[in-house]
Amino acid sequence: MPKWHGTEQEMYDFAMQCMKFADEHPYMGLVAVAAMEEVHDRSPKDENYLGRGDVWPTVEKIYNNFFARYPEDIRRRFFYAYHAYQAKKYDVAIKQFEIIGDRWMGDTCWYSLKQYNDCRAFVYSAHAVTLPPKQAVEHLRKSIEVDPNEKTPHFNLGGFSMIMGQYGEAEKAFLKVIELDPHEGKAYLQLSCIYWRHRIDFAKAKEYAEKALTCDLTREEKRGARNCIKSCGQIVKR
Questions:
Q1: Which domain holds residue 77?
Q2: Of 3, 104, 140, 215, which residue has the fewest beta carbons closer than 10 angstroms?
Q3: Is residue 175 part of a domain?
Q4: Tens of pLDDT along 38-74?
């Protein structure tokens, strides 16, 4: 590796030599994965080297070959989950997290249990937004179970619950967002929408829209809050 006074090309050539023996000796393939991770870490953040179409299939093949021989090697599953997370292959990472479960061990890619759980929660949440609403809700609940203090999964849970017509669940989710961050204007705005259009409580809708306007919103969101305040105010006066 360059950090040991070699060159990236020398590292790559050595890794490819190891790859020749990977089918018979799966641990040799992991040397190539380590080299790819080194390149990934040295690449621009927006490049996602590990996730490239000409790179990730090789990583996946190496790990699949390894676990075909050593299915009970939990430690290596931590590394596979981590590399899938780096590559933004969140569905692959989730499969490994499901196998690992709560069997935490040190000396892997994560330095602490908290760091590991933070990553688990993020992966469930990030993958959820690519799924149909019912599956998304399941993944978001898993994210919240792992890390209940991160507001984004709660906010997304509220959004998907609204899509499914589960306005009571959406209300709970957005109220939790506000509990975690009292300045999250978008959560106030969503609550105003729920009370305005679905829970039929115009006074509460007006109250939450007014609170939304005290927070940081886009111009369009502010317009929506003002429309809600005006409409609900007229109804409440009747």
A1: 1-104
A2: 3
A3: no
A4: 889 888 888 999 999 999 999 999 999 999 999 999 9
